[in-house]
Structures are given as C-alpha cells and as structure tokens.
Amino acid sequence: MKKSRPLLLITICSLLLFAGSHVLYADEDAEDRAQHKKAIEFGEGDKVDDAIKLFDKAIDYRKRAMSIAYHNKGYALEKKGDLPQAIKYYEEAWKLNPRQILTGELLGYACYKTEDYERAIQVGEAVMKIDPTNRKVPPWLEDAYKKRGGKKEVAGKPTQFYMTLDGLLRMGLYYGSKAHYGGLYYTSPHGFRYVPDDGLITSAPYTLFMRITPIPLIQIDATMENPWLGALAPPGLVVQMEKVELLFHIKNVMFGAGVMVNHYDSSMAFFRRYKLTDVKVGFILGYTKDKTETKITWYPRMLIMDPRSSTGKTYDVGSLRLDYSYEMFQDIKLHLLFNFRDYYVFCHSPDLRVFLGSYMRYYENLASYWGVYDMGFGLTFNNLVKRDDGAELLSVTFEWLERFYLENRNNRHPYTLAPNGQGWFGLDVYRFTKGKPFPGFRALSQVLSLRLDEQVHRNFFMYQKFIAELADQDSDHHEFDLQIGVGFKY
Questions:
Q1: What residues make up the domain containing 317?
Q2: Please, are residues 52 and 60 in contact by the beta-carbon 8 Å criterion?
Q3: What is the pLDDT of residues 8-58, one digit of tens each?
Q4: Do the domain assignments include residue 153?
Q5: Which residues of the chain have pLDDT under 50?
Q6: Helix, strand, coil fractions of the chain, as percent rounded to 5
Q7: Do 11 and 37 fall into the same domain?
Q8: What total of structural domains would you count in the chain?
Q9: Which helix (H) or strand (E) holds 223?
C-alpha cells in the first residue's frame, strides 16, 4: 500500500508561507501511522472491534489535520485580502474541528468585519463557551451585539444583571393516616390536598435571586427565599432565608465569601414557640476548565452565645453544597449535586417548660436537631429548539435525588465536637456502642424532577419544574409539586 505524508506537507507549506501566530501546525505522527497499520492487521484478522476503534482514532486525527489545512489556507486568503473566500475555508475548518479556538476567533472576527453579525455572534459565543477567559473575542462580540440591535449574554461570561423569581405549589398525597376508635375519625384525611409552607411573607415556597456583574472580575449574588426543604421537613424550621455572596473570577478559578441569615419560627423544640435568627459567614470556591465546572459552597456551624442578650435559646445552621457539571456532548450536560443542611435549636439556660415537658428529667444544655441531605445527578439537553439565528429557545433538565431526613430531639450532649448534635447523617458517638450509630435517621425519599427552560425574548425567559417526591413507609405522604418561574437578563 502506498503511504502518503499529507501532514508533513501541510507543515512545510505553513512554515514556508507564514510566520505568524494565526497559523496552525500539524506534526507528522509516527504513532498514528503505526496505529493505522495495526488497525489494518486487526481488520484482516478476527479483531474487528479493535480495528474499528483504531480506525475511528485515525479518522479523528485526519479530520484535525484537514481542519488545520483549511484554517491555514483561509488565513492565506485573508492576508491576500480575499475575506469572503477566507471565510469559506475558516467555515470548513470549524466544521471539522469546532473546538479549534484560533479558527473560531478568526472566523468570528472575519464575519464581524463583513457585517455578518448573526454569524459572528454564533461563532463568538461558541468560542467563549469553550474558553471562558478568552480576551480576543469579547471586544468585537459586544460590538456585534450592539450593531445587530440589543445586548445579549456572552457564553462563558457573566451578564451584567440576571434575576429570577419563582414560586412552588405543593400538593400532598396522604396515604398513611392513623385511624382512631375503629375508624371513627382520622388524624389526617386521605388523598390529595394542598400543603402550606409557613413563611415570613407567604405560605408557599418562593425564591428571588439576583446576580450583578459590574466587571468580569467581580460577581455579586443575592438570594431571598422561603426555602422548600422537602416533603417531610417540619414546618417553621426555616421560614425565611437571606444570603449575599461576593465572588471573584481569576482565570479559571472562582472564590469568595458570603453572609447567610436564617429565621426559625416554630414550637417543634422545647415545648414552646420561639422566633430565632442565625447569621453565618460562608466560603465559596469554584474551578472551570474545558468541559467541567466545580463549585463548593460551605457555611460552617458557628454557635455564638451572648448571655447578656440571649433568650436562653439559640438557632444554629450549617450548610455544605457541592455542584459539579460535565459537558458530555455539545448539547448534553451532566451535573452532580451534594447538598447537606443541618439545623439546630439549643437550650442553654434553665427552662421550666423543658423540665416539665421532659417529665422532670432535664431542663438545660439540650439541642434538637433536624437535617436534610440531598445526593443526586441530572442531565440537561440544550438547544432542543433553536431560532433561525441559532439562539436557544428550549432546554430540558431531568434530575434524580436521594433525600435523607434526620432528626434527633433533646440531645443531652449538644456542645461536644461533631458528629454529636447530630449532623453527619445522624451519627451519635454516645450511642454507637449501643448498636444505634445513626439514631438521628428518620426517613428516606426519592425526588424526580423535570424542568423546562424557554427563552421568550432576548432578555426574558421562563421555566417550569415538575417535582415528584416519593417517600418511604416512615412518612405519611408523597408530594407532587409545580414550580413556575420567570427571569430577566441584561
């Protein structure tokens, strides 16, 4: 078989014609030729599957080589002054290798110079999605938005202003009502009914989120919500939450700090209704590279008591969240979620109600604990519907979560180091040797959700999320919820 050497020829021509940073070079790869020969040998034998895999690698390699050839010819035509022809060859190179950043930069800028702003924006956004820290594309891309009419979010770059507002309608399917006196009456009726969620503003969960990015380096996030903790979370545990975070973006790294305020209004702990507030300082760390994004948000437990002003009861909240996403394919993204939330109400002064309610066993130095732990994954399918100009109109997200509910009231060792208190999946070191290492475990549920995101205007969008939480036998109901939200970005 006669062997050609196209890659070597491409490289020599490139070196002879140009000496600029806009030229790409392809080196002769002896290993590739060896793999190609090996694939032929496999094909002539009985290792057909192995041969196919090696041929696929060879095809990908040749595509990249041809992409470099088209790119360099396009650059030669651009230097000659024939920009329309240069664009044609840049387009061919971009089709063969849509992750070749330099080709995207030159193609997008060439389209911008020829006043094809729609195509320039499409290519520029694709480059910014691959390389969020790119500095060559944003100047002409922003100008392309203005000349096309209206400013739009640059992929990979934060918008100047982003806001969402949503609400959640909860419907419970109650199935385990307890019968009294031979069925004379039930503790709660069977069937479907609306589930209220106590809050400072509304009796339904809601979230108001705002993001301001005055410059690419700085990002400010603000959240106010009546959070939905799950179907089996006790009411009043968190009736309101406010959070403000300041983040800094330096190349691929994001870091920052925030303040989170939680409000408690319930009689679940210590036989009396209390209104308590907890203020936390947290830390955020994130990293983005190629197709992956990772973000860790941690608000550690920090109990601060002031005997001069304390009512004898203290509210303490801890939160740890890990978000990870990976772009499996061009329009399919996988994300993983770990979200651990711990809530404590401490009694650290003598209390007659506690003394009587506990049948005179204790009256101070106690803690009641609740925890909600989520672990799961989701898939997002982008660009399911597009406009003629390439703008995304619809995306769909499927998500599955395993949710653990923890509870341990009147813990008599609340001030010891973790894991008591309890937290950490309800681990209790004092009961570990008694055969109950996780006495705080209460119930388990599966949460399935489907979310639709629609772009209704260049600056406005809306979304709906359908949630089904199927609880285990330790609960009294399942839940089927509908979340509706709207958003604005500029």
A1: 161-489
A2: no
A3: 444 445 444 444 556 665 554 555 555 555 545 544 555 556 555 655 666
A4: no
A5: 1-4, 7-12, 14-19, 28, 39, 42-43, 150-158, 389
A6: 25, 40, 35
A7: yes
A8: 2
A9: strand 218-226
